Every structure is written in C-alpha cells, then in structure tokens.
Amino acid sequence: MVYTEQSLQALREAGDELADATVATLFERGEVGKFNTLMRYFSTAGQELPDGLPEVARAYLHETAAPPSWVDWAEMEKARLFFIDNNVHISTALSFASMPACYVVPHVARLLSATHGLSYPSKRMAETGQFTVHLMQPDAFEAGGRFVPAAQKVRLLHASIRHHLRREGCWDTASLGVPICQEDMIGGQMMFSIQALDALHRLGIHMSTEGAESYYYAWRVVGAMLGVDQEHVPQDLEQARQFSDLYMTRHMGPSEEGAYLTRQLLDLYEEVVPGTLFDPVVGALIRYLVGDTCADWLQVPRTPWDTAVKAAPALLGVLETIEDRSPLGAWALDRLGHLTTRFELSSLTRGRVMHYAIPEHLKKAYDVPTAVPRARRWTPPAPTLAP
Fold first, then answer.
1. CA-CA distance, 27 to 177, in Å (whole number)?
2. pLDDT tens for residues 171-190?
3. CA-to-CA distance for 345 and 88, rounded, in angstroms?
4. Which pairs from 14-17 meet CB under 8 Å and 24+ separation?
5. pTM score of the predicted model
6. Which residue range(s) make up the domain with 32?
7. Hey, is 215 helix, strand or coil?
8. Is 197 domain-assigned?
9. I need a surface site. Which of 31, 50, 190, 382 has the fewest CB within 10 A?
C-alpha cells in the first residue's frame, strides 16, 4: 500500500460508526450517567453484564466482545514475550517518546486537553500504562482478562469526545476533519508502535526483527479493537514507516497545548522521582528521543543533562549484552524491569484500577489553561519522504 497526502486526507472524514452511534444514543436518551455507574463493575472479559445497562450499550458490548477473527495467536505470544523482555524500556519509550509525539501534533494536543479527565497527566499516563499491561497479560483476551473491556471503554471514550466537539461547535471540521478521525487513530497506533520501537533502537536496546514485528502486530490488533478501519492500516513495519513519516510531516508543529501538556509530564515525573538532582533527566531524555526541533516546539528546557543522557545507549548496551550472554543475568534484569514497571505504574495509579468513563461534559474553557532470540537485530526502516 502506498500512502499519499490525498489518501490520508480522505481518512480525516471518517470516524467510528458503531461507537459514534452508541454514544449518540446514550446522550439522546440521557443514559450516560447510568452507563458509567454500571460499567465501573464491568472490568473483566466473560463477566456477566450488569442489570439495567442501556440496551444500546449492551448491544455494543456484545458486538465488540471478541478480538478480530484474523488474529494470529502465535504472533501475539511472541509480542507478549517481547514485552516481558523489554517492559521497562517499552514503558520509557511510551512515556518519553510516544506521548511527546502526540503533543507535537497540535490538533491532537488540543484533543487531549478537551476533557476534564485527560487534563491530569497522572491519570492519562496511568491509563496508558495499565492499558498496555492488560494487553500483554497471558489471559488478555480470555475470560477474566482485563484488556477487552478496557478497549471497549476506550473506544466509547473516543466517540464521546467526537460527540462533544461536534455538538458544542468547538472543532473546525471543515479544515481539521472529524475529531479523532481514522487518520489520527492510525497515527496514534504508529506513535505507540513503530515510533516506540524507534525509541528503543535509539536507546541501544537489543531486539530481534521477529520481536519488533510481533510488537507491531499486537498494536494492529489493538487498533482493530479500537475501531480503526483495517483496510487502511499499514500491514508491516515498512508500510508503518511510510505512514508515520507522512502523518508527522503533515501535522507536527508547535502549539501552546503541546507545550502545556509536556510541562505537565515533566512535573509529574519530577514529583515521582525523590529529590531534585535528577529532575532534569526526564526533559533530557525526551529531547534525546524526539530530537531538538520537536523538543524546542514542546518547550522542553535545555540542561547540562542533555549531553550526559547521550551515554544511556552505551550503558544500556552493556546491560543488554549481559542479558544476551547470561540466562541468569537475563532473568535478573527481566525481574528488575518487571518490578520497576510495577513500581512506576503503582505510583501513577496509587493502587487503583483505572476506569475509562464517557465524559458528560468538556472542560468549561476549551483551551488549555495557561524472550525472543535477539541474534538478528532489528534495524528501523529507512525514513521516507512525503510525495
């Protein structure tokens, strides 16, 4: 598949018909509050739906309760092992490369600032982290797993934001297209897949081609469950590179919202990390992973740590070599990574299960207030130029 300006522009006119119709009916019948209350008790796949659930919501949940029929479960298991092997590195990539990539697209940054819930960085990061952890559990798609209900709720969350922005006239549909359109949903999939893999590569993480491909495949499955039209989704990493490069060059740039959200992210991790000595490390890491141009757009402050953090790949490379050569070292580092990820997530969630509710209102002021073998290493696809 070859992507062009014209083909991506066409994707700006499409949303998610099923989720949009469900949300519109819930609002029309005044049933959003009831839905949110009852859905707090629905968090695992196979669980009986609560009594009193609006019929339109019940129909939606039944229709979206199963993963796509084309899922290759062997690939998904490879993706899970890849995540276990690299969980702390993936968390770093998602937090300090993928999220800033969202902020560097002005209309996406504006969308992220549109609801009360998403205005709090700890909640946003906790939801992202918990969603990924749910995805990579052995029982993610089985009865008792938490991923499928989370995906069902996130899909309705996106639809509710589209509903609010259209109804309240806060979105220039003529120039920007549908809010959270198909292009943006696929673009988000790229940020959390190939752009995260790019960040791992820049950090010097040893990963196989098979592992990288499986990780991308898992995010294709995620996209399908979030309402992404699979006819237009890149099928492999080469196509993903083409889409990602074209999408970013079409839209990225500076914005007040992007800078504000980045400042929230920096403040959040400064609060999590004890003391103040290492506070600038987060900004330096973001600058290293997204590059100076994007970091300047996001107003990431420059510090002496900008130079020091460039040594991270060499340090991580030593640890990765130990992991490659020693089964005991691999076990110890995987265990340390698991514990580190759990600590980071528990710090963000404060031990709570995150719920993905349909926001009943937008912010009053829409603008933001001021174990896979790694012998054959994966090399990122070459950058592509927009036609």
1. 22
2. 888 888 999 999 999 999 99
3. 11
4. 14/178, 14/181, 14/182, 14/229, 15/159, 15/162, 15/178, 15/179, 15/180, 15/181, 15/182, 16/155, 16/158, 16/159, 16/162, 16/185, 16/227
5. 0.81
6. 12-349
7. helix
8. yes
9. 382
Provide the β-strand partners of residue 377.
208
Q: What is the pLDDT of residue 180?
A: 92
Q: How many domains does the chain have?
A: 1
Q: How far apart, in whole angstroms, are the C-alpha atoms of residue 228 and residue 15?
A: 9
Please check whether residue 189 lies inside any domain of the structure.
yes
CA 98 to chain centre: 7
Residue 131 lies in a domain: yes
Say if 365 falls within a structural domain: no
For residue 96, CA distances in Å to 89, 165, 297 come to 10, 28, 15
For residues 375 and 79, what is the distance between their CA atoms, to the nearest angstrom?
Answer: 17
For 188-242, the pLDDT digits (tens) are 999 999 999 999 988 888 888 999 999 999 999 999 999 999 999 999 999 999 9
| 53 and 60 Cβ atoms separated by less than 8 Å | no
- Output the CA torsion sign for 209, 212, 215, 217: negative
CA angle 124, 125, 128 (to 5 degrees): 90
- 3-state SS record for 28-50: HCCCHHHHHHHHCCCCCCCCCCC
Contacts of 180 (CB under 8 A, 6+ apart): 15, 111, 158, 161, 162
End-to-end CA distance of the chain: 14
Distance CA 29, CA 201 (A): 49
> What pLDDT was estimated at residue 134?
80
pLDDT of 143-179, one tens digit each?
888 899 889 999 998 998 888 888 877 788 888 899 9
Residue 325 in this model has a pLDDT that exceeds 60: no
- Containing H/E element for 279? helix 279-290
